[in-house]
């Protein structure tokens, strides 16, 4: 017997949601008996029941539950691929909503400009993302993709092109004793109160951008928590703490007389990456990811 047909898989996926043959048929615009036929055919190909059906209820078998958990992401990825191909065939239109943290640097601006040249029928909307919620807007579908500080280790998100690495910089009050230094070592962070972000961001992400200890194991005092970059910079200017930033963000704000920006030696570089929903990104977001990759390859 050959491999399963798409219609069989669609019937199983909808039935797993509805747990009712009649409602499944209504959603698929087929009869209840046709749903049963498709399910039997799929179970015949697999060699075991996927669904238990009684006079009172429908439920998945343990094998059906396992099959569902593997099938759903694969099916969504296949559908996204078809959507991408369809969009490419007729030209990408609609709206692309891009989220970003901090500032739109030259690399991102160039990628946006290249995408607009390639896809003039697609409108672009850009929204700033709170520092304390790097992944929430993508998950809530408020944006189609987002350029955020890494790392990302969320199961429902995938990492697209990664922008260049950048040395980390310490933002602090111009009155701070370290403000006049050409650089500071990572070990000297133990002498600063490091501004962190509120806990809507995952713990591993927060620790990456406001570490609790130096590479040598010295504890770093915790400073106030913020939601946005501007909140953090305002607190740093008021000498309430110091904040780690990537170099491009530090350069963008370097004109503020109340702040000093000092490179930090001995910390891992900061990285920005494009994040999309895993397997369910919009055709516009997928096309943008390809353009970003091409733009970065050009240098």
Mean pLDDT across residues: 88
Radius of gyration: 25 Å
Distance between the ends: 51 Å
CATH superfamily assignment of the largest domain?
Periplasmic binding protein-like II
> Roughly what percent helix?
40-55%
CATH architecture of the largest domain: 3-Layer(aba) Sandwich
- In one word, what is the shape? elongated
Structural class: alpha/beta
Question: What's the level 1 CATH class of the largest domain?
Answer: Alpha Beta
Low-confidence stretches: none
* Strand order, sheet with most strands: 4-3-5-13-6
Major sheet, described briefly?
A: 5 strands, mixed
What is the strand tally? 13
Order of helices and strands: HHHEEHEHEHEEEEEHEHEHEEH
Number of helical stretches of at least 4 residues? 10
User: Strand portion, in percent?
Assistant: 15-25%
Number of domains: 3
Task: Provide a descriptive summary of the structure in words.
Helices cover 40% and strands 21% of the residues. It has helices spanning 6-18, 21-28, 32-46, 62-90, 106-118, 136-139, 203-209, 229-237, 247-252, 283-298, and strands at residues 51-53, 58-60, 95-100, 123-128, 145-149, 157-162, 168-173, 184-185, 194-197, 222-226, 243-246, 259-265, 272-277. The strands form four sheets. It has a five-stranded mixed sheet. Strands 8-12-7-11 form a four-stranded mixed sheet. Strand 1 (51-53) and strand 2 form a beta hairpin. The radius of gyration is 25 Å and the shape is elongated. The model has no long low-confidence stretch (mean pLDDT 88). It comes from Streptomyces glaucescens.
